Amino acid sequence: MVHAVDDTQPRRAPAALPQVTLVAIDGTRNSAATEASLARASAELTFGHVLFFAPGRPNTRPELYERCEWIEIPPKSLKEYNQFCLAELHAYIRTSHCLTVQSDSYIVNPAAWDDEWLQYDYIGAPWPPGHSGTEYRVGNSGFCLRSRRLLQATSTLPADSYVWRGKLKQSCRDDVITCVMYRPRLEELGLRFAPVGVAARFAFESPTPEAPALNGQFGVHQYRRRSRTP
Questions:
Q1: Is residue 9 part of a domain?
Q2: Structure confidence at residue 11 as a pLDDT band (50, 70, 90)
Q3: What residues make up the domain containing 37?
Q4: Residue 144 contacts residue 100 (beta carbons within 8 Å)
Q5: Contact between residue 132 and residue 55 where contact means Cβ atoms under 8 Å apart
Q6: How are strands ordered across the β-sheet holding 15-25?
Q7: Between vectors from CA 35 to CA 57 and to CA 101, what angle results, nearest 5°?
Q8: Are 98 and 225 in contact (CB under 8 A)?
Q9: 3-class DSSP state for residue 89?
C-alpha cells in the first residue's frame, strides 16, 4: 500500500539537513516512479545535495530539477545497480552522509528525523530475527542512511558474489555484503551500525518484535520483488 501525501494540509518549511545528500539510482529505461519518490522526499526536507542517477530524465516531476542534479548513467542490471552503490557512489557524495530512496521507498514522517542518527555509519529498517541466517538484523538498503566513510570502505570490497543463509550467490546485494558478510571487517575499521532499536525507529519494511507495524517511523520501504529498482 502506498502512503499518499495529503496536499490539502498546510506544510511547514522543510527542516534542513545540510550534512545529508539525498540519492536515488535507477538503472531502468522507465524511472518515473523513482523520480516521483525522489521529488516527494526532497520536498519533505531540505538536503545538502540531491542526486538522481538514471539513463534519462522522465520529467514527470519537473519541479524536482530545481533542487536536484541529474547524472546520466548507462542502463544497469540489478547486479550492476548494487555494485554501483558499493563501489562508485562514494565518489559523488560531498556530505558526511547520504540517504538512499528507491521507487518503492519514501519518507513518511519527516518530523521523526533525529540528528543522533548521524553518529552511525549505517541505518536501515531491521530484518526479522533469523532473516539473514546470522545474528545481524540491520540491513535493507532500499531506504537507508550511509556515511561517506562507509561508502569509501565498501568500495574496496569484492562485489561479484555474496553468501546468503549459507549459500553462495553469483550476484550482488549491497546490503548483504555491507551488513552481513563484511560487517565484522567494517566494524574493525571503526564503522558503526545502528542498534536494532534505533533502526526500528528509522524505517519500516516488515514486521519485527521491535516494530510490528508502520507507526511513526521516519521512512518506509515497501519491498515489491517485481518492481525493484532497477
A1: no
A2: very low
A3: 15-227
A4: yes
A5: no
A6: 69-72, 45-54, 15-25, 97-101, 144-147, 122-124
A7: 135
A8: no
A9: helix
CB 31 within 8 A of CB 104: no
Nearest CA-CA partner of 139 in 202, 48, 80, 214: 202
Query: d(Cα 77, Cα 74) in Å, to the nearest integer?
Result: 10
Query: Which pairing describes strands 45-54 and 69-72: parallel, antiparallel, or unpaired?
Result: parallel
Three cell numbers, residue 110 = 519527516
Report yes or no on 6 lying in a domain. Answer: no
pLDDT tens, 199-210?
999 999 999 999
22: nearest Cα among 100, 107, 121, 103: 100
Cα 94 to its chain centre, rounded Å, is 17
Query: What is the per-residue DSSP string for 125-141?
Result: PBPPTTTTSSS--B--T
- Read off the pTM: 0.89
Strands 122-124 and 144-147 come out as antiparallel
CATH number of the domain enclosing 177 = 3.90.550.10
In a domain, 8, yes or no: no
**Which has the closest alpha carbon to 33: 225, 218, 206, 230?**
230
Say whether pLDDT at 183 is over 80.
yes
Residue 138: phi and psi, rounded to 5, are -100, 115
Instruction: Give helix then strand counts, H and E, for the chain.
Output: 6, 11
Domain total in the chain: 1
Residue 138 near residue 122 (C-beta atoms within 8 A):
yes
Model pLDDT for residues 80-89, shown as the tens digit of each residue: 999 999 999 9
Residue 82 in domain: yes
Alpha carbons 158 and 172: distance in angstroms, whole number: 9
